[in-house]
Amino acid sequence: MSPTSATLTPSSRPRPRPRTATRSSSPRRSRDLWLGVLGVLIVLAGAELLSRTGIVNPDFLPPVTEMYAALFAMLGEGWFWEALWLTVRGWAVGLAAAMALGVVVGYIIGSSTFLRRFTSSTVEFLRPIPSVALIPLVILIFGTQPQSAFVLVVYAAFWQVLVQVLYGVADVDPVARDTARSYRFGPIRIARSVVYPTALPYIMTAFRLGAAVALILEITAELVIGVDGLGRELGIAQSSGAVPETYALVIVIGFIGVAVNLLVRLLERKALWWHPSVRSEQS
Amino acid sequence: MTRYLKSAGYTLGLPVILLTGWWFASAGSTNPFWPPLSTILEAFPTTWTMDRIVGDILPSLARLGIGFGIAVVLGLVLGTAIGLSPSLRALSEPVLEFFRAVPPPVLVPIIALFAGYTGWLGKIVTIALGCLWPILLNTVEGVRGLEPTLTDTAKSYRLSPWRRLVFVILPGASPRIFTGARQSLSIGVILMVISELFGANRGLGAAIVQFQRSFAIPQMWTGVIVLGLIGVLLATLFKLVENRMLAWYVGQRQIERGA
């Protein structure tokens, strides 16, 4: 068995890519682009019209232009940037901790059959416990400090990462592993040149899932508990009746989500440029 | 016989160790936040009485079920339509990309503007909207990723569009649809709890927060455990349904892996 087959087989599993190549021809692509822009315009114009004509009460859905006016007004204010920074920092720190913890623990458990069998029932039980169940607990212990959000983010993202890493390590071709062992590769060398390439697509999947969940929990903690950040500002804006500002903050948080998705995709491409799932996409 | 014992040992070993660890570590605890496990278990039957189950847990689960159901139906219909039409897909892709990226809890304040947050409506809408996107996007991907040979064969046999949908497209996309539905379900549980933290009326999330606010700590812990058990139960239930409906796919993958 060639050493590449170890890395080829998992490609389709973590993220099966459709084979239909709609992005192949460039006239089609530019047409798609314009259709996309048109779609956005339709939604924006539709929302504006619904509000202006009074079909939807403008107290609930202000015109889109007002939302963006509120958004641009916010861009000039210090609290906005402060809150944005706190949200992004909370997300990044929590995600990084969950990734580090998940990869290390996953690698240790995944490398040993005994540990894998011994822990599987516990992992299966703890994983589906919704992290929001911890909200009352962290309120009691940390109150509105950033640690509250940190605990929720790490708990939620950790399981996503752990499970993917476990799959990834289990997916290593036994022949490749045994070959490396017969060549007397040390454990570090095996981790680096046998396990790592196989597990990397799974780790990227873990990163993608974890990044989304981490953002959800960060915003939840801010909104529900009152940890400083955009979520808290959103709650304040809504309860004080500042409707256009409420929508503006939702839009900002949505754009953070889009930015996170783009970042993940970029990283995936950088880290997996050699991987068939990425290469077939670009051809 | 020894094999069963061994596998039982593997399954139960760590949970037993952890629980005994918790039991003894917390036994003499005087820290109000970490009551002894025995106190928590004692509080359990008096806290989760029939009245609470009917008044708090069942309404919560009913809202989750209705919201999730609406999301599945909407996601399947819209997702199939978008997946089958390249123009529609191009038209909606950036918009969907944005809505997917919005963290669902953000919807709560917006929906509170429209429907208020004391009744069922706002909560169900929150859950449905939050659950919609994973199902919708995975259905689109599933329909798009269908084996071209399959769709071409179905076409050349002149299957009517309806039959093609029921016998080729939906089954072919079902593994992806289930992936999406599983993501949706865990988001749904999160939203079920969060939506109850705002409205003052009853529900599982509301009950737990009430315990926390009145410093009924052992009761709060029982609530956390109930919520955890519900999460595990729903995940198991989902897995059962998935294994049954995707039995062909699981078998096919096992053959692929074995080969």
UniProtKB/TrEMBL annotation, chain A:
Membrane-related topology note = Multi-pass membrane protein
What keywords appear on the UniProt entry? Cell membrane, Membrane, Transmembrane, Transmembrane helix, Transport
Superkingdom in the source lineage: Bacteria
Give the location in the cell: Cell membrane
Keyword Cell membrane listed: yes
Locate the ABC transmembrane type-1 domain: which residues? 84-268
Any one Pfam family here would be: BPD_transp_1
Task: Give me the ranges of the annotated region Disordered.
Answer: 1-27
Q: Biased composition, Low complexity: where in the chain? A: 1-12
Q: Which InterPro entries match?
A: MetI-like, MetI-like_sf
Q: What is its main location?
A: membrane
Transmembrane ranges, per UniProt, are: 33-55, 91-110, 125-142, 149-170, 202-225, 246-267
Q: Which family does it belong to?
A: Belongs to the binding-protein-dependent transport system permease family.
Q: What is this protein called?
A: ABC transporter permease
Q: What is the lineage of its organism?
A: Bacteria, Bacillati, Actinomycetota, Actinomycetes, Micrococcales
Automatic annotation (TrEMBL), chain B:
CDD domains in alphabetical order: TM_PBP2 (cd06261)
Specify whether Metal-binding is a keyword of the entry: no
Which InterPro entries does the record cross-reference, listed alphabetically? MetI-like, MetI-like_sf
The UniProt keywords, alphabetically, are: Cell membrane, Membrane, Transmembrane, Transmembrane helix, Transport
* Occurrences of domain ABC transmembrane type-1 (ranges): 57-242
**Which membrane topology term applies here?**
Multi-pass membrane protein
Location in the cell reads: Cell membrane
List all membrane-crossing ranges. Answer: 7-25, 64-85, 106-136, 185-209, 221-241
Similarity section: Belongs to the binding-protein-dependent transport system permease family.
The protein, known as: ABC transporter permease
Q: Which organism encodes this protein?
A: Demequina zhanjiangensis
